[in-house]
Amino acid sequence: MVDLSIVVTCFNKRDFIPEFLRLSSELLRLGFEIVLVDDGSNDGSTDLLKAHVQNYPQIKFVPLIKNNGSANARNQGLKACTRNYIFFLDIDDSCNPTTLKRSVLELATTDCDFLVANFEILQETQLDWMPIKVSIPTQVEMKEIASQILQTMGYWRYIYSRNFIINSSLRFFPTRPESSFRNFILDDAFWLLLISASKSKALICEKERVVYYYNRPVDTPQAWNFYLTQLQLIPNLLLIFLNTFLPNSYLNSTSLVKNSIRWLIQVLRPLNFGAVFYSELLTPKVFKSLSDILKSVQVNRVVLAKLYIHAIFFGIKNSIRIRKRVRILN
């Protein structure tokens, strides 16, 4: 038995299920626990997964009646885990079972709260590097690498201590109800904000170690426009997020607020001025709420001034660039 629960989430990924079935057989053979969450699929995925689970009753199957987004699905999966360590896997991605086993055994010999490794982007056959590059596994306090954590993709490159998640009262932030979108592609970023502000210790693996294989979504003009539309929701979502997690004594509240504002500056950079205005960032209500939050954790409001200067500057710059492009096309 490997002391690791793998939370696998699925929503309308029928075409990827055959490959997952092969992978799950290998994971079970090595002794992992699999918690399979179907997030209200309506493309036939649910029936295929049910049939698979009947052949492998050791898989914990969590079928959700209604699709409420990946954050909720992962939270439901967390509740069903029984092993001491947790790993998250989207069903259209893949992982390296032998490297996972080796990694969790190594993590268990330390007092670290999670392990960080590389992942590979399948379409590009390239690694996405860890926050810091080391030649041998290295233990490090989160406060030392918080800024690097926020500059890297993916909750999926981590193996987590279940006790760390439970004791810290961490959970994925459910952006679906607030955004009313079918998918919210930045829900994992809120999770990384929590990790970056946690009072934790990480085990950073050597740079060659890969635990995850990531299928990058197809990049189309429609997908980009959808992404920009979602970015307009971020300011209000961030207020809800901060008010939800600031009372958490296991998080460094000052770091959570600072990191959130810095992240917000980066997130809003692609928006033109009209989109920035539509996001409600410039409304007195949002400004006052952010100002009050900064004051409550004794963070200098110069951070807030930088946010607004950057948002307005890049908003105007993007608006001019778009206008020039339209003029050229005409």
Describe the structure.
By secondary structure, this protein is α/β, with parallel strands linked by helices. It has 2 domains: 214 residues, Alpha-Beta Complex (Spore Coat Polysaccharide Biosynthesis Protein SpsA, Chain A); 106 residues, no CATH class. Helices cover 49% and strands 16% of the residues. The strands form 2 sheets. An 8-stranded mixed β-sheet has the order 3-2-1-4-10-6-11-9, sandwiched between helices. The protein has a 4-stranded mixed β-sheet with strand order 5-12-7-8. A hairpin with a 4-residue loop joins strand 7 and strand 8. Helix 10 runs parallel beside helix 13.
Average pLDDT confidence is 90
CATH class of the largest domain: Alpha Beta
Helix amount: 40-55%
> What is the third-level CATH name, the topology of the largest domain?
Spore Coat Polysaccharide Biosynthesis Protein SpsA, Chain A
How is the biggest beta sheet arranged? 8 strands, mixed
Please mark out the parts with pLDDT under 50 across 5 or more consecutive residues, or reply none: none
The CATH architecture of the largest domain can be named as Alpha-Beta Complex
Rg from C-alpha positions? 21 Å
Determine the structural class based on helices, strands and strand pairing.
Answer: alpha/beta
